[in-house]
Specification:
- The chain has 169 residues and is mostly helical.
- The chain contains six helices and no strands.
- The chain has a single domain (3-154), classed as Four Helix Bundle (Hemerythrin (Met), subunit A), CATH 1.20.120.
- The protein has helices at 3-32, 39-43, 49-80, 88-97, 104-118, 125-165.
- Helix 5 (104-118) crosses helix 6 (125-165).
């Protein structure tokens, strides 16, 4: 199998994973955000284990989707475009330059939500409530990033197929 085919299969696999992750995070969000997530709701977590599980599902799925997009799909797509392997922030800047990402800086801010949602909640319910609600409000930006990279991948695949069709005798 050629490197191009291996990379194409990797991109296809990652898109399948991302589609599933989006469906799962959307389902979890429906369970948690019938109303905004406030400090008052955060205070109820100890008393409502089922709600705590739903919140855990949302936060872990949000983080997993962000990881898959930024740490796996983005580098693979850049590699398919012939871009050199670069540090994470450089990849984000390229994604912004290509129009896939609104802002590399806002993506870094979303990454910081992880610590607030996962680690800080033990100490500061206000910080937890703010981080979780912000993550929910920014979920569409993750999905938009995924969609734009999917469109770029489709364009790349079509260009690759067309170039190989033109070289046949």
């Amino acid at each position: 199998m050629s490197i191009e085919n291996q990379l194409a299969k990797r991109l296809e696999f990652l898109q399948t994973v991302i589609d599933k992750e989006i469906a799962l995070v959307d389902f979890a969000a429906q369970q948690v955000f019938e109303t905004p997530f406030t400090v008052e709701r955060a205070k109820l977590l100890d008393q409502d284990p089922m709600f705590a599980l739903k919140l855990e599902a949302f936060t872990s799925r949000f983080c997993r989707l962000q990881d898959t997009l930024g740490d796996k799909l983005l580098p693979a797509l850049l590699k398919a475009l012939g871009e050199p392997i670069e540090p994470f922030i450089t990849n984000l800047n390229k994604a912004e330059k290509f129009g896939w990402l609104e802002s590399a800086e806002s993506w870094v801010g979303l990454r910081q939500l992880r610590n607030q949602m996962i680690h800080e909640y033990i100490e500061d319910l206000e910080l937890l409530a703010d981080a979780v609600q912000t993550a929910f409000e920014q979920l569409d930006s993750l999905k938009m990033f995924a969609q734009k990279m999917k469109m770029a991948e489709v364009s790349l695949t079509e260009a690759y197929q067309n170039s190989h069709e033109n070289t046949k005798f």
